[in-house]
Each structure stands twice: as C-alpha cells, then as structure tokens.
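Bench notes, afternoon.
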Amino acid sequence: MMNKTSGNLVVVDDDPYVLESLSSLLMNFGYSVRAFLRGGDAVAYFAKSGGDLVLTDINMPQMTGIELLEAVHRHDREVPVILLTGYAEFSVAVEAIKKGAFDFIIKPYDPLYLFHAIEKGINYKRLLQIEKNYKAELEETVKQRTQELADTLRMLTEMSTEVVKRLTAAAELRDEETGAHISRIGMYANRIAHFLGMPDGFVENITLASAMHDIGKIGIPDSILFKPGPLNDLEFATIRKHTVIGAKILQGSAYAMLRMAESIALNHHERWDGSGYPNGLRGTDIPVEGRIVMLADQYDALRSRRAYKPSFDHETAYKIIVSGDGRTLPGHFDPEVLRAFKELATQFDDIYSGLLDAADKDVPESTPSWLRSTN
C-alpha cells in the first residue's frame, strides 16, 4: 500500500462522478483537494489562493484543459499542470506539452502512475521554490557582503587619512605654518593632476600622499630647520637629507598611497633640468608625482613666510615660477606641469587665500574633507 502524502491540489473535470471519485481518492491519500466542474471557477480560485499542482480534464465545455493550462500559467508559470484525456490523440498531447503541460495521462488512468505523476509534479514545484529561495538568499548575501566590502573600503580610506594626519602631526608640532601648508599642497596637487588628465586613483592618492612630502624634516635639527639666515654648505647638505629620511619613514608599504608618498618624499626636490636633489634625476626619470608636488611646494613656499624669507604675493610668486629669478628657473619644472600651473594660477591663489572650501563647486569630489579647507 502506498504511503500517504500531502500537497494542495486543484482538480477540474466537467463529469461530476469522475470529479467526485478522483477527489475522494486523492484526499484519501493525504492531499488537500479543491474540486471544480468548470475551468473558469478553478482559475478564479487559483488566482486568489494558488496551489501546488493542477489536475484537469482536457475536453470540457466553456474552457478546455489546455485553455485552463494557459490561464493558470498566466498567474504562475511554475505550477505543474497535469492533463487527463480519454482520447489518445498524439497531436493533442504534443499541443499540451508545447503549452507547458507537466504530464499527459490517458483515461482510464493507472492510480499508481497518477500518484507518481502528482508526486513528481509537487516535488518539482518545491524544488523550484527551494531554488528561488536559495537565489534570493544568495542575492541578499551578495548584497550584504558588497555592503560590508564598501564599509571596509571606507574604513581603510578613513584609516589612510588618519595615518596621514598622524604622520604629519609630528611636523605640525614643530612649525605652526606646516598644517595649512600640507593642506594646500594636497589641493594644489589635486588640481594639477586633474588638469593633466591623470586617473582618478592617481588623483586620490596624490591628494593624500602629497601631504607627507616633508615628513623627513622631523629628522632635521631645529637649529638648521629654523635658522634665520642663509645656510652654509654643511647645513644645506643636512637639510637635503629630509628627502631620504622621509622616504625611509614611508618605505616598504603594500598600499599604493603610501608608496606614492614615499616617492614624493624622495623626489619632490628633483628638477626637470637635473639640478635637483637628492639624486639629480632629469626629465621623465623623475616620477610624475614628484614633478607635480615639486611645483606645488615651490609655489606655496614662495607665498609663505619662513625664518629665512618674507612671504610673497601671488603675482610675485607666479612671476618667479614662470619667468625665474636666478635662483628659481622655469627649466626646473616639467613643461606640462608648468603649463597646468599657468592655467590654474588663479585657483592656486584662491587656495592659498582660503577662498576655496568644501562649499566650492569646483573642488573635486576626490578631495578629502580635511584637505578642502585651508583656513
């Protein structure tokens, strides 16, 4: 004897005796059955309450079994529909399968085969639901993991910013001008990199990394760093070492931003004509980030008061960089970086004067908030 099973069935047959006997048989084996003499009533019920499987005769007035099949599938494409017929016409069976019938059974049916077909159909529906639930759970998991990844990346970005702020804090403690200086260098470098069409990742990295260009000065004695008069040769040789010291502080990182910071610390005093330090690099042998920060640093140094010099106004600083003054020459700068400076000169003045802040529409989105205001 067969084991009793379960499932919600919709059974349709226009012959009340067949419908009653079939329904009783199915209920006796544990199925929940809703029986209908007309296909339209069955469709109305199914549209409202659904079901695990539909079992219907083919040849019925008003709505045939194939029409009922199509109507049911308009509401739920996944529900199995088994068609019953007393006429074994091959063309009818082919048409039923083409319309999406799950199975096609000839009357008088074998009860064992009928139960087998129903169980197969119900299991098929349940497997589809399991698959649908799995896909939904998978999509939710992917969504959750994506959000976690975004949160992690945001945390890493914030951590990178925190590292920059803490590393440069050491320099700020020694010079009250340094804090504003490093903020401005980041904005100058950001603007030049954008103008030169550098990739977004490069622009983002140089905006942060340029703030650490002078980190090596923490290794320079105050007596030299803040000497009010000209430096002698030995003192000048000592202060030049801040490039190498800074690179050593930052070397060996696995993070692109800190690797760029190492490069900038080492190369931001190299000159296009080869007269810079510490390695006397020339032209494109100097990494582009070093060439950008070299000009940005030079401009801000000219604008800023130092122990050994007064501050210059924008016009004077611009003229010195573009035309030279004997000590600073146009040949010191990468021609493309110099061209960018000429085009962006007004913005450089605004950045130094604190006229560009977080509310300014021209400030690139990649600029970190702590670098957006220079006041």
